[in-house]
């Protein structure tokens, strides 16, 4: 459903969210070779609170080195609300795990994937995830999203 926006389509808004990792499943795609590099697939169930309020499922493909560092790519679907606007959208992400075990990354909204009041959503975010012993899975994350809405027909967003 399209709604009339109170701000021009070009305004950028910054939104911050905490992310609880509710479940984490890992499957080895290819065990470590002589270089010590393992290929891994992970599936995460996440709960966002803050500017983003809702749930998401993420699928990561990871390259993990013998010391725990590595890189990843990800696809994810969020369902909930962004600053009070209900809907859903898909995103793609990429990032790395550093020597301290902290995950750093960036994600982008897939253009055209927003539905409901998130139709026309565009944006990008930076995030980090770290071990949090008191969380259900031992992990939690935080993201900072910069977003805007593309103008639709007759100025609807």
Short description:
The protein has 157 residues and is mainly beta. It has strands spanning 13-30, 38-50, 52-64, 70-82, 85-97, 103-109, 115-116, 121-131, 139-149.
What's the count of strands? 9
Roughly how much helix do the residues carry, as a percent range? Answer: under 10%
* Anisotropy-based shape: elongated
Oligomer: single chain
Distance between the termini: 9 Å
Low-confidence stretches: 1-8
Which strands sit side by side, in order, in the main sheet?
1-2-3-4-5-6-8-9
Q: Radius of gyration, rounded?
A: 17 Å
Largest sheet: 8 strands, antiparallel, barrel
How many DSSP H or I helices? 0
Q: What structural class do helix, strand and pairing data support?
A: mainly beta
Beta-sheet strand percentage? Answer: over 45%
H/E element sequence: EEEEEEEEE
Mean pLDDT: 91
């Amino acid at each position: 459903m399209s709604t009339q926006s109170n701000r021009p389509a070009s305004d950028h808004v910054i939104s911050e969210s905490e992310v609880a990792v509710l479940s984490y499943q890992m499957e080895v795609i290819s065990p470590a070779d002589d270089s010590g590099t393992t290929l891994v697939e992970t599936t995460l169930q996440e709960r966002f609170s803050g500017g983003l309020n809702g749930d998401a499922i993420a699928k990561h493909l990871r390259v993990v080195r013998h010391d725990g560092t590595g890189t990843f790519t990800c696809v994810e679907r969020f369902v909930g609300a962004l600053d009070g606007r209900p809907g859903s959208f898909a995103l793609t992400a990429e990032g790395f795990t550093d020597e301290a075990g902290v995950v750093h990354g960036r994600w982008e909204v897939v253009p055209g994937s927003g539905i409901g009041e998130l139709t026309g959503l565009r944006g990008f975010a930076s995030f980090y995830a770290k071990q949090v012993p008191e969380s259900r899975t031992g992990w939690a994350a935080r993201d900072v999203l910069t977003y805007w809405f593309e103008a639709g027909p007759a100025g609807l967003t």
